[in-house]
Amino acid sequence: MQDTKSIKPTESELEILQVLWNKGKATVREVHETLLTVKDVGYTTTLKLMQIMNEKGLVKRNDSSRTHIYKAAVNKESTQQFMLNKFISNLFGGSSSQLVLQALGNNNVTPEELDQIQLVLDQLKKKD
């Protein structure tokens, strides 16, 4: 898989990657039909985006048959980490704690989520 430091997927490209990460591999039509459940997008737009993503190295295309099959060429977790670090750096001045405080202060957090957060905090404290 490609190094995520050299790629910067757009919001639309991330939506397509999400479909491919969930499905493993898919045709343009399958990706397009999945995207239609959440937004209005034309088939040719999806096709063009996936062609561009192939050129950028975000996806790989198997064109050995008439119907091209695409799969993600970047790792989901690495991409999420890269995008999150970029987001924290650009919007929160590099402060992870500011991001967490903002997220917890503005949303309804379930008791289960608080338990998960506490578990992560406890693990982080043990590392020190």
Automatic annotation (TrEMBL):
Keyword Transcription: yes
Alphabetical GO biological process terms: negative regulation of DNA-templated transcription
A GO term for molecular function: DNA binding
InterPro entries to which the protein is assigned, alphabetical: BlaI_family (IPR005650), WH-like_DNA-bd_sf (IPR036388), WH_DNA-bd_sf (IPR036390)
Pfam family membership, one: Penicillinase_R
Keywords: DNA-binding, Transcription, Transcription regulation
Domain of life: Bacteria
Entry similarity comment: Belongs to the BlaI transcriptional regulatory family.
Name of this chain's protein: Transcriptional regulator
Species in which this protein is naturally found: Niabella soli DSM 19437
